[in-house]
Amino acid sequence: MAQYAIIGLGRFGMTLALQLAKMGNDVIGVDNERKVIERVANSLSHAMIADVTDEGVLKELSLDYYDAVVVAIGEDMQASLICVVHLKNLGIKNIWVKATTEEHHLILKSLDVSRIIHPEEEMGIRTARALHYPMVREYMTLGDRQYVVEIPAVEKLSGSSLADLLSEVKNQVFCLLIKRREKLYPSPHEQFVIECGDVLILAGDRPSLTKLVPRLM
Ligand code: ADP
């Protein structure tokens, strides 16, 4: 079980904290609004009303025992930055921070935090991809324009072998795994015959995956 501290429980911070708690982690939520803390008190391991611009308050929380501290104060940039500076001074290593504006991002970069999060932009990109490639249920970026994608096989793929499906993108797109009902078939042979409803996990570069799109819809 990991331990996380989420500072600022607006829409993003609250969802993050509740989700981490649901996943079985030890989560402390901190916010300066009593109403907000009352809402999460029963769902998190600890919930605390505090103003995180006060270094003394942060010190008392012993945040160095946590695996990560997330600062999810968006609107009040000054509070977010002061909190980050205090966390840095307290020697906290793994600090993730939500940024709302370009200036906010720029300053966070110079403060050398572990990760800067842009929830709206990141969700915008995911939503655009979901609209543009509706057949892709999930994807993971590998960098260098390479992706791992999860694609449920449509009816017209029934009876095709993997070799048929991937013939145009041989050695560019690889099938890592097929899931059929509850069973997993890792590194399936190219003669594996696809059934409608199989879930294919494919890896490859974006142009090659895009070439496959018409066969997957
Ligand atoms: P979102 O866009 O994700 O809803 P907000 O910036 O609106 O994010 O919400 C941030 C949360 O951080 C709010 O619940 C607010 O009460 C809390 N917050 C703002 N300033 C402080 C502070 N100095 N100390 C503790 N919590 C704060």
From TrEMBL:
The record's Gene Ontology biological-process terms are: potassium ion transport
RCK N-terminal domain residues: 1-117
Looking up Pfam families in the UniProt record yields: TrkA_N
The segment(s) forming the RCK C-terminal domain are 137-217
Q: Which GO terms describe its molecular function?
A: monoatomic cation transmembrane transporter activity
Which superkingdom does the taxonomy of this entry point to?
A: Bacteria
Q: What is this protein called?
A: TrkA family potassium uptake protein
Instruction: Please give the organism.
Output: Methylotuvimicrobium buryatense (Methylomicrobium buryatense)
What taxonomic ancestry is recorded?
Bacteria, Pseudomonadati, Pseudomonadota, Gammaproteobacteria, Methylococcales
